[in-house]
Amino acid sequence: MNQRPLQLGLLLGMACALPWLAGCGSALPETALVEGKITYAGQPVTFGEITFYPQQGRQATGRIQPDGSYRLTTFSEGDGALLGKHTVTIKAVKFPEPADQPGSMNEEIARDLKGGRRQGPRAQPEWLVPPRYAKRDTSGLTADVQKGSNTSNFDLPAQ
Q1: Sign of the alpha-carbon dihedral angle for 99, 101, 106, 112
Q2: Who wins on pLDDT, 10 or 145?
Q3: Cα separation, 77 vs 20, whole angstroms
Q4: Where does the chain hold its CATH 2.60.40.10 domain(s)?
Q5: pTM of the model
Q6: Alpha-carbon distance 61 to 107, whole Å?
Q7: Helices in 28-119 by DSSP H: which ranges?
Q8: Among 99, 126, 120, 100, residue whose Cα is nearest residue 108
Q9: Which residues, including other chains, have CB under 8 Å from residue 59's CB and lie 6 or more apart?
Q10: Bridge-partner residues for 34, per DSSP?
């Protein structure tokens, strides 16, 4: 039996299917660019993470830069957030190194995991914005993402 017609038929079928598959587009929901700036008491928040939670679907996150700016990512770097209304959280907390202890916080954690003893109290976290902004049910922050480019600035008042 001659295999050539069968191979040729398979090749033609795949060639016809490729344009159809390419034209199908992505199965991912539509996103829109979202960027902005976060300030607390009029000063830029220099570190942390912002998260947009849609009513349905995947949340978008962004790292807060030293100047307070951010850009959201949902599926791929910088693609933005899903369209629609979102609840927003801002978590900006640092764990400072204790001034009277040698070594870093990571060394302390590693020592704890190996059964070592901690040398004094653990450093307390430093909240750059009030911790209520880090929780969905207490942040009180919202945003509405529309098609196109969106700017969502958050100026958090001093407490």
Answers
A1: negative
A2: 145
A3: 27
A4: 29-90+131-156
A5: 0.70
A6: 29
A7: 105-113
A8: 120
A9: 51, 52, 53, 74
A10: 150
Polymer length in residues for the chain: 159
CATH of 29-90+131-156, one of 2.60.40.10, 1.10.3720.10, 3.40.50.360, 3.40.50.1240: 2.60.40.10
Residue type, 2: N
pLDDT digits (tens, 9 = 90+) for 33-92: 999 999 999 999 999 999 999 999 999 999 999 999 999 999 999 999 999 999 999 999
Q: Residue 78: in which H helix or E strand, if any?
A: none
Q: Quote the DSSP letter at residue 128.
A: S
| Higher pLDDT pick, 84 / 115 | 84
The bridge status of strand 48-54 relative to strand 93-94 is unpaired
Q: Which two tokens stand for residue 79?
A: 């693609």
Name the token pair of 136. Answer: 């969905």
